[in-house]
Amino acid sequence: MANAQATDKHPGELADVPGWFPPLDQVLFTWFLDRQEQQGTGGDLLELGAYMGKSAILLGHHLRGGEKLTVCDLFESDAPDGPNQAETTKSYASLTRQAFERNYLSFHDTLPTVIQAPSSVIAKEVGPGTCRFVHIDASHLYEHVYGDIGAAREILLPEGVVVLDDFRSEHTPGVSVAAWEAVLNRGLRPICLSTQKLYGTWGDPEPVQEELLTMLRQHTDCGLSVQWAAGHRLVRTRSKGMQPPPFPRSRHYVPPASAPQTPPASRPRTARPARPRSHARRLAVDLLPPVVTRAIRRARTSRA
Ligand SMILES: C[S@@+](CC[C@H](N)C(=O)[O-])C[C@H]1O[C@@H](n2cnc3c(N)ncnc32)[C@H](O)[C@@H]1O
């Protein structure tokens, strides 16, 4: 995973926050969360692996009265084992909790509940059956993701949605194994697959899939296909130049300075064309006797 560079600046827009949250997934998160809100499905939100806050900031925007967002990340703390430590040193070296909090507070008045610890603690921190949406994006190693999926199952409401990041990236085979194992052996039902994330539920995926298909078919900026595998309907979508959904700017947004007025291009200085002699002057010269005109011409030539 390429390192998303941290910056010292307050973000003006969500696009300024470093992270790994493609426009298609921003559209899908927004759609799932809006749908839950429209259906009156209340519940808390949880993110395992927040990094600089890109996806957490979007989640925080969807909190309704009485709901809570919890994020869990190691930030600067040591990872629980060597492979996980190698992963965090390689990909998240510039991460600080302070940078996460600065970014989050640029868009929201209050912080979420922040748990600075390995994601394995989460089932002790968040109550069973309390969340409507869980984003799993912490360690990408099999043992950790296996545990995170188990915790999400406990924590989610019956029709809640879980999102597994990097379920098929070349560099994260452990997530792929954990994700498809959950589908085949642990009751997880896929709702849809984006390029980067698997969206699933332990409830009934069919009603939400139908609505999602209707929404996606209206988009000309994403590809869509449906396949069946091992009794699961797999709705696969990918971006074709999709833009992120509209999102409120941060309190630090500064509109770009209007382009300076460019002066009209100045005409290149060229030699002024010789002014034609006026008709009256020409007439006057032509009427002079030849001896006088010759004298005038001689005088002009000697002046030149
Ligand atoms: C891919 S980043 C998260 C990206 C973020 N969700 C976004 O959209 O920009 C993964 C994060 O997980 C954290 N992490 C890695 N291993 C972890 C573990 N065992 N427990 C908790 N967090 C972990 C890292 O510190 C890093 O911030």
TrEMBL record:
InterPro entries: SAM-dependent_MTases_sf. Residues 257-266 have a biased composition (Pro residues). Transmembrane segments: none annotated. Pfam families: Methyltransf_24. Residues 269-282 have a biased composition (Basic residues). It comes from the Bacteria. Signal peptide: none annotated. Residues 237-285 are annotated as: Disordered. This is Class I SAM-dependent methyltransferase. It comes from Streptomyces regalis.
